[in-house]
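Hi L., both proteins are below.
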Amino acid sequence: MKELRNICLLLAAMATVVFFSCSNDDIDLPDIQTPTTYNFTRNGQTTVSFIGQMERIQMATELINAMLDFDNATAVSLLEMYRNETEAGGDANPFSTEELNASTRSVKSKVAASRDFFSTNTAEGSVIKADFERWINEQVTEVFSNENTLAEAGTAGQIADGSSTRYVNANGLELNQVVNKGLIGALMLDQIVNNYLSPAVLDEGDNRANNDSDVLETGQNYTTMEHKWDEAYGYLFAAASNIANPIASIGANDSFLGKYVIRVESDPDFSGVAAELFSAFSLGRAAIVAKNYTIRDTQADLIKTRLSEVMAIRSIYYLQQGKLSLELRDPDYGAAFHDLSEGFGFIYGLRFTRRFENNEPYFSKAEVDGFLNDLMGGTNGLWDVTPATLDAISEAIAAKFNFTVAVAGS
């Protein structure tokens, strides 16, 4: 499957994604070399900034951790972490650092908030935002209150997963995993591929003319177009210890998109995806500096395709791993439900994938809802799901891409 890593996205008019044996090296790139680091300067000072993305990743990380803080977290405090607005009777400083508590940013404000998918579809965006609030509330009202109860079909509580203890709702879902993996799609992926890398955002208003003339944002050292591209980069790489050369540390301090790009990278069938994404971001940013928008858009298309693949691969992977645990002579429900809860979150995120050749996701809302209903449709949710159902969902996801269930699920 090494050829999967080499794709020519210049044939953008095609209706489906087809993998070709070509790469950035095959494209005529006059006067632009792919930078080896994400380091761009003007007058000796950096032009790269993605503070907002870094803060939201940190906020989301604290929220996910707090969802297992049975002794201290409350529905009010958890929702405050998600909304970052003082609740009645709540803590106006829910985070562990002064910087985050002083921030006016929030996780919720950027969930399902992309220009291309949700600016004229605010009703669905509101439903998606509310989904996360519902899962957060349910973690407290159903799971926290059953911390010391042994989980069984129809009853929330704890369940063993090897040496680990998992905490699930009455349908077997680990809601902290659902929120964690759900944000990868609804926040990180949506903002990257449907917002910041969208021509509607990059070229909004006078952005292209201002970039051509090096007109900077007021009080800043970057053009608006440069900054929008950097913000997309931040949602993938901001948590790396070396943000200019992040591959060695991507995922180490990140529970979100960066972590799972590296998980896909670790599969020999998909090795090279992390470096390819970094190169595409770096070359696209260099193209903005060089005012070459054809190359910029080609790299944006590659990023959209690769990140959409990551979501599909991890969806299939977790479904198949959950299936293996259910097929044991003595089913390991703890391991299965952990994997399937992660799979639920990644499947939820398929709604935010992006075909490079049009303004559509790989999967419609109806398709994603259908997958989730099939996964959870029994009376007791995951307690009732069958290996055959997991295979059927996996096959339907893989059918949109050029890899098999066997390859993605191993």
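That was the first. Here is the second:
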Amino acid sequence: MARGSLSLRIRNKYGRYWQLYVFLLLPLVYIIVFAYVPMLGTQIAFRKFNYTGGLWGSPWAGLANFQKFFSSYMFSRVIWNTLRISLYEIIAGFPFPIIFALCLNTIVHRRFKKFLQTVTYMPHFISVVVIVGMMIQIFHPLNGIYGIIARFFTGTTAADLFGNPEAFPHLYVWSGIWQGFGWSSIIYVAALTSVPEELYEAARVDGAGRFKMVLYIDLPALAPTITILLILRLGSIMSLGFEKAWLMQNNLNLRTSELISTFVYKQGLAAGGPTDFSYAAAIGFFNSLVNLVLILIVNKIANKLSETSLW
């Protein structure tokens, strides 16, 4: 009798909203086809891929592709370049959206606030190709604004920043900060809107200034959001955007601009030389595995230190 009543309740529950469950089929199929089925392709990293045998007919190579990468002189270079720029991005760029959101929250004039938000959001929608093109024009040693200013003050031709390996990380990181800090601040601005106005009124009554309100009201309200986003960012520390690095890269700055993403592309897909799909897949698999381990470790640490974590 109990089983019958339980099955009846289940049928009533799911039968009443069956249309909603039908709508779930499309995203479910999408996830299976584009997220889980491609995982079968990770086996290419453990094979010696050839076109005649295909994915399933290529001979097994075991860990040979991974050993080849670990013993390569490029291993330390691409790992160091990727970690260096990624950590640089986190240290220099992660606080910017938070600070900007806190500053926006102090602005009383609504029209000026909306104008400032719109202006800072706009660079996010500019294509990376256009951004790099703008950078090339601005920092051109002869005709760019940078070259003209340098020649005006020094009387000599400015150094070519795009040809300087040491300048590449700074150009990459700070152009990304300029393009993304406004857009990244949206989630922090949204979190601040949920703070009750009564807290600010009570703080004013107690004599708290604007700085103390930020310190004791705004920052605690943003703490869970900051923690989650920092976990996600640290979990993808080995993943840097390919397109921008590829466009900024040249033979002169290759020493610091060769990242894991660009190296994988050159090994597996780039024209003009021999390609090795299995070797490129092994590097990509290693990169994903490191990111997975990092996000597990960072999430565990966040869970120990605070009550906020991904799971």
